[in-house]
Write a structure and sequence with these properties.
The complex is a heterodimer.
Chain A lengths: L1 H14 L3 H23 L1 H4 L4 H39 L2 H4 L6 H37 L11 H14 L1 H13 L4 H19 L12 H7 L22 H25 L2
Chain B lengths: L1 H6 L1 E12 L2 E7 L2 E3 L3 E5 L6 H8 L7 E6 L2 E2 L4 H5 L2 E4 L11 H12 L3 H10 L15 H13 L5 E5 L7 H18 L2 E6 L2 H4 L5 E6 L2 E7 H7 L2 E7 L3 H10 L4 E5 L2 E5 L3 H13 L4 E8 L2 H13 L1
Parallel strand pairs in B: 4-9, 4-10, 7-8, 8-9
Antiparallel strand pairs in B: 1-2, 1-3, 1-5, 5-6, 10-11, 12-14, 12-15, 13-14
The chains are: A mainly alpha, B alpha/beta.
């Protein structure tokens, strides 16, 4: 356990000056700022909407951009950046000749990539809430204060996080095996496009493709038995839909396979 | 206590074998590296040196054979054994986006060492002034020195260095040599150092192992290696050296080598030297010098590795 904590700290130390780490902060900041200014500059379109509808429009503008394309692309980049630090410096063999168990070294790297995805989604959540409330303070016509979306939005981002575990594991493995960016990026991009096509054509087996999971997670966000009665939806997240289970299983399986691959690969 | 320790063996392998695909790159290697020695592990490029080192560090797993380091079997005691080893494998593994100091601090973090140790190492390898420069912008020699500082950071009992003088200028090589000798003589460390050039390590090594095509061809102290070296008669002649060599051969002497106007003949006795001198004079060759020489270690090394390859 100590070896794991030390390795995790070292992952942070190594990455803290790289774009891989800063992307986790800059991406949410940038997207939220864009949507924030969009709403702020054109209050006529959305002001005076009921709180719940306004929140859905505002948070949805942010999370839909994320779920469809940005989240998979961000995961592809994070998985690459965490591994490329070692590829570039040719340090896999050094890491594995330290007096620290190999599982600790590998797990720390995997969980650090996971942590960066979690951090980005957490910041999306916090920035969305913060900027929405700020907007209501600047312009009282925005009725954000009428509705408390904190729990719903938190669960939404938690679901997106769980839905991204499958992609992260696959991309982590690809970036472990290949030191260049193009191969994992190309495969990830094709997977993402295939995911969009499968989901938009309502394919029966779309839940089996991890790249479709974030998009599906957003689509299956609200419990079906909570259909709006009189135009105002009841916001309650259906967290564990079947694509989430697939994502968790794929994530765990590939994490274990990756360990055996990295051992063989690292020491050529 | 110390007397006993001195005699003990730090690295001991028995019948170590390793195969890449269907090519056997390490063939039944049995190493004995005594405590307090500088063990020069020599062989041409591709002889199996780096693979052997990776086996010693548990990065690769042997097909057969065993490895004991400090008397402990490596697989069963991996973390305990690795805790006593500092290593540098192939080119130094350095994070280019971090400064020299940050590279050392990152390793210190992993090994739970104080920052003061980082500063000591920077001073030791003369990187104090360049400590805050990005390591990616270091010269090859500076990178190599940083790699050695990383290997030394935990103050390990055993240093395993794979061609640490690669890319260093003569001054750099001398510096590393002095540093390693100091570590062994003043701090009782053991150094296992590989090289493809005997000349780089014969001034510091106490023991030598020679490997080629995965096989150990020689192992022992430097004195034992020197004792193997043949004595030769070196003759500097005027005129055609090749023809002179033919004349000497026709009288039953063995010519070992011909270099421009110099001949080397296997030494037998003083009488033989006189005989050769007379013979050459009779045939009209001017003998500028005739003297007994010891074959140098570099040639001996080449001899050993080439004989095995033939």
């Amino acid at each position: 356990m100590k070896g794991f904590i030390l390795s995790f700290k070292s992952e942070f130390y190594k990455s803290r000056k790289t774009l891989g780490f800063w992307a986790a902060i800059l991406l949410p900041l940038l997207i939220v700022l864009l949507v924030f200014f969009g709403f702020w500059a054109h209050p006529d379109k959305t002001a005076n909407l009921p709180g719940v509808i306004l929140w859905m429009a505002y948070a949805g503008a942010i999370s839909n951009v994320m779920g469809i394309l940005l989240l998979p692309m961000y995961i592809i980049f994070i998985a690459y950046s965490v591994n490329s630090i070692e590829h570039k410096a040719d340090t896999w063999k050094t890491l594995f000749s330290l007096p620290i168990s190999k599982w600790s070294v590998y797990t720390a790297k995997y969980l650090y990539a996971l942590f960066l995805v979690f951090l980005a989604l957490l910041l999306f959540y916090l920035f969305t809430l913060g900027s929405g409330n700020l907007l209501a303070m600047i312009n009282p016509k925005f009725k954000f204060h009428d509705y408390n979306i904190n729990i719903f939005l938190g669960e939404e981002y938690l679901k997106l996080f769980l839905a991204s575990l499958g992609i992260l594991s696959i991309q982590f493995l690809l970036s472990l095996v290949w030191s260049d960016f193009l191969k994992p990026m190309g495969i990830g991009f094709i997977g993402t496009i295939a995911g969009i096509i499968l989901v938009s054509t309502k394919n029966d087996y779309d839940y089996l493709l991890p790249y479709a999971h974030p998009l599906m997670a957003l689509g299956s966000l609200i419990k079906h038995n909570n259909a709006p009665v009189i135009g105002i939806p009841v916001l309650e997240v259906d967290l564990f839909t079947k694509e989430i289970y697939v994502s968790l299983i794929v994530g765990a399986a590939i994490y274990i396979i990756g360990f055996f691959i990295v051992q063989k690969k690292s020491v050529k | 206590m110390l007397g006993n320790k001195r005699k003990s063996v730090v690295i001991q392998t028995e019948g170590l074998s390793f195969t890449f695909g269907n090519q056997q790159v390490v063939k039944s290697v049995s190493l004995r590296v005594p405590d307090g020695s500088i063990f020069g592990f020599l062989g041409p490029n591709g002889a199996g040196k780096t693979t052997t080192i990776k086996l010693l560090l548990n990065l690769l797993h042997a097909d057969s054979g065993s490895i004991h380091i400090f008397g402990q079997e490596i697989k069963a005691n991996r973390i305990a054994v690795l805790g006593q080893i500092g290593s540098l494998i192939e080119q130094p593994a350095i994070y280019a986006h971090m400064t020299g100091r940050e590279n050392l601090r990152n390793r210190a973090l992993l090994l739970q060492l104080p920052h003061s140790r980082v500063e000591e190492m920077l001073a030791l390898v003369h990187l104090k002034t360049a400590a805050d420069k990005k390591a990616g912008r270091y010269s090859l020699g500076m990178k190599q020195r940083l790699g050695i500082a990383l290997a030394l950071l935990s103050d390990p009992q055993l240093l395993i260095l794979d061609e640490p003088t690669n890319g260093l200028d003569p001054n750099g090589i001398i510096e590393i040599r002095q540093l390693l000798m100091k570590l062994v003589h003043e701090h009782g460390k053991t150094v296992f150092i590989s090289s493809h050039l005997l000349g780089e390590i014969d001034k510091m090594a106490t023991h030598v192992g020679i490997i080629n095509n995965g096989e150990m061809l020689f192992q022992g102290s430097l004195e034992e290696l020197e004792a193997m070296s043949k004595q030769l008669v070196q003759i500097e002649v005027g005129g055609n050296a090749a023809e002179a060599a033919a004349a000497i051969t026709s009288k039953g002497h063995t010519v070992a080598d011909v270099e421009q106007d110099t001949l080397f003949v296997d030494y037998l006795s003083k009488e033989q030297m006189g005989e050769i001198n007379t013979l050459l004079n009779q045939k009209g060759y001017v003998v500028y010098s005739i003297t007994k020489v010891q074959k140098d270690l570099e040639n001996l090394f080449l001899d050993i590795t080439q004989k095995a390859g033939a």
